[in-house]
Amino acid sequence: MRIKIPYGGEFMAVDVPDPRIKAVLRSETISEKTEKKDEQEIVVDALIHPIGSSALNKLAAGKRNITIITSDHTRPMPSKITMPLLLNEIRKGSPDANILILVATGLHRATNSDELISRFGHEIFQNEKIIVHDCRDESVMRKIGTMPSGGILELSRYALDTDLLIAEGFIEPHFFAGFSGGRKSVHPGVAGYDCIISNHCSRFIADKNASAGVLKSNPIHKDMEFAAKEAGLAFILNVILGEGRVIIDAVSGDPVQAHNEGVERLLKKNAVKKTTAPIVITSNGGYPLDQNLYQLVKCMDTAEKCCEEGGVIIAVGECRDGTGSESFYQDFASGDSPSTLLKRFLSRSPTETKTDQWQSQILARIMEKRHIIVVAPLIEEIVKNMGLGFAVSIDDAVKQADFLLDRPQDDKAKIIVAPDGIGIIVT
Predict the structure, then answer these.
(1) Are residues 20 and 48 in the same domain?
(2) Residue 406: pLDDT band by 50, 70, 90 thresholds?
(3) SS3 for 334-392, per residue?
(4) Which of 247, 269, 291 is the last residue of a domain?
(5) Which of 117, 160, 409, 416 has minimal Cβ neighbours within 10 Å of its Cβ?
(6) What is the value of pTM for the model shown?
(7) Catalytic choice (73, 174, 200, 221)
(8) Do 6 and 54 belong together in one domain?
(9) In a shared domain, residues 147 and 290
């Protein structure tokens, strides 16, 4: 079987003997086609039929200042399609409204001008007011309450000082928030630094309900939903993406009801039955989700559920931006063992949480019981410095995995392939 794994904007391929393939895990969204409607029609239909809410143009009527929260450069949000439609609906109800597009970066680096143009197109970039969120800019932060976790809720005044707050995003499994989309645009999207790290504390990350596909009793989700409500998020437009990051479904309306409906639709398409093997090959589904090694931990989290203890996870990613986090890199480049790192993280209180500690915690947890080989030719030295296995190709990684597992040539280990590891939920 020739296996193609997304890598950057292209693919890496490897030939694996059929008897070795135990399963190929794919979401139905990967191959689903929308023959009757194009992407714009799907979004228009969702806006015409909001869930649990009046139409956006009616909500906008009489509103002077309106803020739209949108995703940053690390997310494949098709804003060239969605944003013009949102702006049009708003101006139907309030032609002279002052509209602000607020880019939700959370703790990520600032989205640059080229990335904004790529996301929105020249017309919106040049003619609309766009502000990129900075979680560390205390001058624009406002403390507005206490979250269910006990942490202080601190949000950007650009999201608060408005007559109508709406958000666009996309829904996919998220490895500790359950799902992306909906409330996540507000928190961590436009939250303050201390607020975010408190929500991402080691105790919450270690909670059994802080997992992909889980919203019920998920402490991280509870804080996020509370934040969206306190911010006054009134309306969302969330899309579901298929192969080629094409819109195959969309929901709009009430932030909770519409998001829940979108989650249910996605679950019907991307839940896969759990099966295990000694070797799992996976990726983040290509660019922009494999921009750095930090993000690549997400597909490793999915692979962990399918990889036998002592087995090997092969994670493929371009990582054109390197690690994506200096603190994440230093945690592992220090030479400390995964168990030592875990003890350190779990000893910290929520307010003592360090930047990107949560990603290190999840990676250390995986490394404790499984080998990891990263196929990322652009960052060989970084990968090796972090104590991870490195391979220049998937074929090389499989050979290394066989060596690590000490399997004889006539009885090589079975392999599970999850081409887009963050696009599926293992149940």
Answers:
(1) no
(2) confident
(3) CCCCHHHHHHHHHCCCHHHCCCCHHHHHHHHHHHHHCEEEEECHHHHHHHHHCCCEEEC
(4) 269
(5) 409
(6) 0.88
(7) 174
(8) no
(9) no
64 class by beta-carbon count within 10 Å (0-12 exposed, 13-18 middle, 19+ buried) = exposed
What are the C-alpha distances in Å from 51 to residues 7, 236, 255, 258, 312? 36, 10, 9, 5, 44
- Check 73, 108, 221, 371 and give the catalytic one: 108
Alpha-carbon 419 to chain mean position: 16
Per DSSP, which regions of 184-288 are E strands?
A: 233-241, 247-253, 271-272, 277-283
Domain end marker among 245, 269, 293? 269
User: Which residues lie closer than 8 Å to 278 by C-beta, 6 or more apart?
Assistant: 307, 308, 310, 311, 312, 401, 405, 407, 413, 414
Segment 340-360 shows an average pLDDT of 95
Query: In angstroms, rounded to a whole number, what is the distance separating the alpha carbons of residues 354 and 133?
Result: 20
Rounded to the nearest integer, the mean pLDDT of the chain is 95
C-alpha span between 366 and 302 (Å, rounded)? 10
- Residue 235's identity, in one-letter code, is F
255, 280: one domain = no
Question: Which residue range is the domain that position 332 belongs to?
Answer: 2-25+275-426
Beta strand segments in 147-232, E: 152-156, 164-170, 173-174, 178-179
Q: Are residues 263 and 281 in the same domain?
A: no
What are the two backbone dihedrals, phi and then psi, of residue 77, each rounded to the nearest 5 degrees?
-70, 125
CB atoms < 10 A from the CB of 109, how many?
14
Question: For the domain that residue 215 is a member of, what is the CATH number?
Answer: 3.40.50.11440
Q: How far apart are CA 317 and CA 359, in angstroms?
A: 16
21/118 same-domain check: no
Mean of the pLDDT values across residues 381-386?
Answer: 98
- 394 and 257, same domain (yes or no): no
- Minimal CA–CA distance to 272: which of 75, 420, 415, 77? 420
CATH number at residue 357: 3.90.226.30
Is 259 among the catalytic positions?
A: no
Residue type, 179: F
